[in-house]
Amino acid sequence: GEAGKQIIVGASVTTTAGSIGLSARDGITLLAGSQLASPKYIDLKPTRMTLTGNIDGVNHVLPVVSFNPYDNARSILLRGIAPEWALGLDPASLGRFGAYEINIGSSAHTGSISIDQELRMAGNLVIDTGQSININAPVTLTGANSQFIGTLHESSGSGASVTNVGVIDAKKKISILGADQVQITAQLKSADIEITAASGGIQMRRNPNDLDPTSVTTRIEAANTLSLRSSGGLYQEGGTLIPAPQLLVEGELKMQAVLASM
């Protein structure tokens, strides 16, 4: 349903075979004790979002849950409290939902998307935007086939970063695709990892908070295959590590450290 101003859900809204879509210019509120349940898709498009209620599947079939701002230019911040200019999503709430996959943003989204507080969930996490993706806190996907997919739909000037306090840990695969530039100063860990960048390149730098010269906290660690492709080059600073049994590199490589393979 679509409302001109606000949607407040105070009870259980369930479809056993269809999907649920809610859109509101001012905001969507899931009150405590309320629930949205579907075996297919649950699409939420507000300016502001309060996630006190629950989201789940039906008959053990989990939905794909999507969050987009009512205005595609509005930034999305995953943190407990967000400023008025952004769509805020509480990571603790997202983590307790029953979802096969959570989608943040879309190919039409033109604002930045940032994860600023720890997110731990079992399903896939898909982030889409045309501007920037910033991982500023630990992201852990615990499902056996879980994937993290971050896609930038505008290669000119767009960026993806995993900062010194950010970590991405997904069991099956991590993909960071389409950015002009990718910067990593933290840890990525998965069975397979794929990173692509345009002219801005892929930059892997030592964590500035790591004061112990013997430790290596900036790592891109793949149990199977690691693929790094960039038209703008790949830079690896000293004090960083790229362990992988299979390493595929495409682009001009500049190193202050030796790439390591397991």
Account of the protein in words:
The protein contains one helix and 28 strands. With 262 residues, it is an all-beta fold. It has a 22-stranded parallel β-sheet that branches.
Mean pLDDT, to the nearest integer, reads 92
- Spans of at least 5 consecutive residues whose pLDDT stays below 50 are 257-262
Could you say which structural class the secondary elements and strand pairing correspond to? Answer: mainly beta
Report the strand count: 28
Fraction of residues in H or I helices? under 10%
List the helices and strands and how they pair.
Blueprint: E1 2-3, E2 6-9, E3 12-14, E4 20-24, E5 27-30, E6 35-37, E7 41-46, E8 49-51, E9 54-56, E10 64-67, E11 75-78, E12 86-89, H1 91-96, E13 101-105, E14 113-115, E15 119-121, E16 124-129, E17 132-135, E18 138-141, E19 147-152, E20 159-162, E21 167-170, E22 173-184, E23 187-204, E24 218-230, E25 234-236, E26 240-241, E27 246-250, E28 253-255
Parallel strand pairs: 1-4, 2-5, 3-6, 4-7, 5-8, 6-9, 7-10, 10-13, 11-12, 11-14, 13-16, 14-17, 15-18, 16-19, 17-20, 18-21, 19-22, 20-22, 21-23, 22-23, 23-24, 23-25, 24-26, 24-27, 25-28
Distinctive features:
mainly beta, 262 residues, 3-stranded parallel β-sheet, 22-stranded parallel β-sheet, 28 strands, 1 helix
